[in-house]
Each structure stands twice: as C-alpha cells, then as structure tokens.
Design goal:
The protein has 8 helices and 9 strands. By secondary structure, it is an alpha/beta fold. The two termini are about 30 Å apart.
Length: about 240
C-alpha cells in the first residue's frame, strides 16, 4: 500500500504517493492531464517490488496546490525540485501523455538526472489544430484553468522541444497505444526515433494503455527497465 506525503517546492505544495522498499532504486511516475497519482494504482504495485515508486500529483491536480500559474515548464521545474528535495540524484522516469511531456522536458534539460525514460502515448511536440475543451459538470479534482493553459501549450508547443529531443541521453521506451488512440501514431514513432537511445513498442489498447492493458504495459516496461541490452529500433507487443 502506498504512503501519502507532501513537500513544498518553490512555494508549491506537491502531494505524492510512495511505495516499495525505501532503499530500492527510485522510479518516478507522472500522470496525464486531469489525473493524479492514484491513476497509477493499478500498475504501481508491480514496480514497487523492485523500485521505490514515487507517484506525484502535478501542480493543479489532486492534493497538490492549485496555484493559478501553469505551464509544462513549471511542472518540469516542480519535478526537478521534488528530486532535489528528496535527494534523488538519478531516477527512472515514467510519464503518460501530459506527464510524458513533462518527463521528456526534464530529460532534455537535465539528462544526467534520468537513467531510463518511459513515455506512454506521448504526442510529438508539433503544432496541431486548436480546440476549446468543454468544462465537465460538477466538482473537479483538478484546476480547470490549468487545463486551458496546458492545452494551449500542447496545441502550440515550443519549437525547441522537438529539436532538443536529441539531447536526451536516457535509454528511452516509447509505448504507443495503436490505432485506437487519438494521438497520431506516426508522431509517436518519430518521437522515439529522435531520441538517440529510443525504442518504441505498440500495445494496441488506445491512449489509456496502463489502464486498459495493465499487465501488458507492466510487462513491457519491466522488460525495458531491467534490460541491459542496447535498444533496438522498434518492437511490437
């Protein structure tokens, strides 16, 4: 069972769940837009057998602060501050969708902090057609202003994000959701190709791979994290 904690990073309270042996290698998991740390509950116990798993609520989500100021870069800085606060010098890093963008931004800017990187159905940073999302009814577990700010960035990403993928030194697994996903799969493959030590595996479960096919997801990620072999260009699950 995960323990619930919180720390303050740059004046922002970040909530997180921790599980697994305290002295095991660290594995940090970053959720998608509108989710929180509990989104990983179905697969985190598998990884907690061999890693100390830290699942964060990113700013504007869940039990973390909703400070009203949002960007993917601020989320990246929050995660870096989290690593510093817990004295986690080098980690394995898993990110889904928006969390994957935060993860690769961190791996681009601080390559020495990431050993292995897993990106679950993460869009390549290229401009896309802009749409205005509709606010769900009822009480939300995330800040709606955060959704609008992050969606604007995902729709019109900084051009440097694409170019700097080549700066990532971590061995990288890109997990694609296949044709059932709304994320263009050719872009996901290109993202993997732009990372020097990237590989791609397709699990045809749609965008929510770790929820729709948790055992297949865990199997693929475990094989990657535990492998000492050099990555191959592409794998199919």
């Amino acid at each position: 069972m995960a323990d619930h904690h919180a720390i303050h990073v740059g004046g922002v309270r970040l909530a997180y769940q921790a599980s697994g042996p305290p002295d095991a290698p660290p594995l940090v998991m970053l959720h998608a837009l509108g989710e929180d740390a509990t989104d990983w509950d179905i697969v985190a116990p598998v990884f907690a057998r061999s890693w100390r798993v830290y699942a964060l609520d990113l700013r504007g989500h869940g039990r973390s602060d909703w400070p009203g100021e949002y960007s993917l870069q601020l989320m990246r800085d929050d995660v870096l501050g989290f690593l510093d606060a817990l004295a986690l010098d080098r980690v394995d890093l898993v990110g889904h969708s928006m969390g994957g963008i935060v993860a690769y931004l961190l791996a681009e800017d601080c390559p020495q902090r990431v050993d292995r990187l897993v990106l679950e159905d993460v869009p390549i940073p290229r401009p896309r057609e802009q749409t205005t999302p509709t606010r769900p009814d009822g009480k939300l577990t995330f800040d709606w202003e955060m959704v609008l700010a992050i969606r604007r960035q995902v729709d019109t990403p900084d051009a440097e994000w694409l170019q700097r993928l080549s700066r990532i030194t971590a061995k990288t697994l890109v997990v694609a959701g296949g044709p059932r996903s709304h994320v263009p799969q050719d872009g996901i493959v290109e993202l993997a190709c732009r990372v020097p030590h990237g590989r791609v595996v397709t699990i045809p479960a749609g965008h929510l791979i770790h929820k729709s096919e948790p055992m297949e997801f865990a199997k693929a990620v475990l094989a990657f994290l535990q492998s000492e072999e050099e990555p191959c260009p592409a794998l199919e699950a």
